Amino acid sequence: MAGTDQLSAVFSALADPTRRAIIAELAERDATVTELTAPLSISMPAVSRHLKVLQRAALISRSRSGKWRASHLEAAPLREAADWIERYRRFWDSSLTRLDAHLAAMRTAGPAPDRTVDDPRGLA
Amino acid sequence: MAGTDQLSAVFSALADPTRRAIIAELAERDATVTELTAPLSISMPAVSRHLKVLQRAALISRSRSGKWRASHLEAAPLREAADWIERYRRFWDSSLTRLDAHLAAMRTAGPAPDRTVDDPRGLA
DNA sequence: CCTTCACTTAACCTAGCGGTTAAGTGAAGG
DNA sequence: CCTTCACTTAACCGCTAGGTTAAGTGAAGG
Hints:
2 copies of one chain form a homodimer.
Chain A: H1 6-14, H2 17-28, E1 31-32, H3 33-37, H4 44-56, E2 60-65, E3 68-73, H5 76-86, H6 97-108
Antiparallel strand pairs in A: 1-3, 2-3
Helix pairs in contact in A: 1-5
The structure holds a DNA duplex.
């Protein structure tokens, strides 16, 4: 899963299209494993393990009612993921491109550091 | 990487904290492999491969200038990732919770489907 | 009860990740 | 030239992911 931190777990969970499909489904309504398996063309054990991954990332909760186990979307962790990505919005949002260019210019401004062949970016 | 689609590649790339750190660094300024390696306490080959992953996800571009290879953040793919997550904002954004509850009620409304022990969620 | 249903767990597979060290490449420079 | 610098590629490692089939679990029900 790469890191063991929350954010890594969430991004890792989202990296699988099957799990994204499960999330999309659970956004509509809670569902049992059988219901989730039906449209997925993989075995129920496979789905069961995807659910475990989503649960470890705290993206779903599960409840038992008789022989059925329903999965319920818990989207709170998505907020952290969204927040992380949002920090870079200025890099793709065209309405902020001008500002970004300005800020980049600000960063590059100042004493105009010496740039040599050995130090092409003036970091020395 | 789970899927080979663009979105999976991006989320997969973001799932590693080292790669997120690299992105954070490149958001400040373009950087060479050596510069990126310095604060990371892993070997340069390891960083080199992280960069390849980021490049496959189209999150960075690379240019050559003499013996230096600079990496440059290309955040466009982050937009897709952000857009995907945004679809679920109503599940965590409290200002939308009331609306969400309303929509859920709408979905559940109607002929009030029969619910039996065999069909606890009235899907039959 | 014994079976069926709805799962979960186990065992196994192949493929890929992330790290290492060591060897290869290609431009710069004394 | 030959070396050094800044990487990249190769070979190898242990670990995890995602799939399978088969066996286990536990509540419902004739």
